[in-house]
């Protein structure tokens, strides 16, 4: 895994971030796919540039905000010798010593939560649709293939850059689905390769939307509802393999310490980690339920005759 591509320079810059490069590629691919789909559906392709821009802006803002929610209990804590559980992190860039800071985490290059980006991106785009009095359901159906492809490429960026969305330890040695983790420990812990798993699933449902579903004359909102159900279910399942913190634990969580076990591996990677639904799983369930509600309330399994 390569976090940065080194580029010699006199300014001490470490080089190009591989995650940033692949995220930029994801948006570029989306900017290519979206206007073509808008034109095919006889919608105005001139809106595509604004939709891409608002999607990028919403993704960056929402992904960061939801990341802060994930580490909230690490940022705002009681630290002996320091006053102000909430005021100290607000007034100090790096927060409490030995803990992530609110502002340093918010404006760092890492720490992005996809669902936060998705929800805020949808919010910004919906406001744009409302402002211009556009057909929300039709335009949402048109952006789904681009979103699916963007997510597939973005998850590859997580893997290439060594982002922390790995799975728990496993004894399996399945090509592509398992890799050796060399992050916090150099011992090479075999873990589930959840970024690549998610990317494969996203490429699969992109192919479904791009090459089949969009030609089936489904009713308006149907493609969007299907995406909510398919993506929500995919993320719900993959979260059972990821090393994530439960919002409401159903059993005692493992001790998150870096004390190596007998094989030299960190103890929090050596066992089954899931102990309750994570933030992303609750959002996944909400997306699935909303997608099902749209399908049932609007009878979206039916097709409209005579439309392309």
Molecular structure report:
The chain is mainly α and 308 residues long. The protein is built from ten helices and four strands, in the order ββαααααααββααα. It has helices at 18-40, 48-70, 72-75, 87-91, 102-106, 114-131, 136-160, 194-211, 222-238, 279-297; strands at residues 4-5, 16-17, 178-181, 189-192. The strands form two sheets. The protein has a two-stranded antiparallel sheet with strand order 1-2. A two-stranded antiparallel ribbon has the order 3-4. The protein is globular, with a radius of gyration of 21 Å. The chain starts with a strand and ends in an 11-residue tail after the last helix.
Give the structure's gist in a few sentences.
The chain crosses the membrane at residues 16-34, 50-72, 106-129, 136-154, 191-209, 221-241, 279-296. The chain has helices spanning 18-40, 48-70, 72-75, 87-91, 102-106, 114-131, 136-160, 194-211, 222-238, 279-297, and strands spanning 4-5, 16-17, 178-181, 189-192. With 308 residues, the chain is mainly α.
